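worker-3 :: picked Cys-tRNA(Pro)/Cys-tRNA(Cys) deacylase
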Amino acid sequence: MSPARSRHHRAASGSTPATVALTSAGVDFVERPYPHEGGVTAYGDEAADALDEPADHIFKTLVTAEALGPRPRLIVAVVPVPRRLDLKALAHRVGVKKLVMAQQAAAERATGYLVGAISPFGQKQQLPIVLDDRALALPHLLVSGGRRGLDLQLSPTDLIELTGATTGPISR
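worker-3 :: tokens ->
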């Protein structure tokens, strides 16, 4: 049930900043739309069920913030849906004392996306990204396409190259 892949994917009329960024960069990706049910907040689980993909191939994009300081720096973590973000491991990886989950309004303002649809691509302010190293063993992964009900399938290498992401063991 693998959709056709195209090297120069043309963004559809309902394009998002994420699909535009990938298309502009010439990255090989596949749009994987699915019906989003209003009221659902377990976005990754919904995508895994709807797309008939293993949940550990679908990655959630989480925005964190430094816990100290008047204007905390935001850091993005991309981790498999069934796992939990390890804030201590992420803080250690990026060299800060302590991280907390960012306020919803701050995450949405910085990325330009709604929570549940935050993509690592096409962010309003390109935030530093750390990808869980479990992704490196996968032939492809899926991340949010910038709106609820749209995931993008691509190689972990392309995600790293396009976003400048670093990798590390940041989930448990």
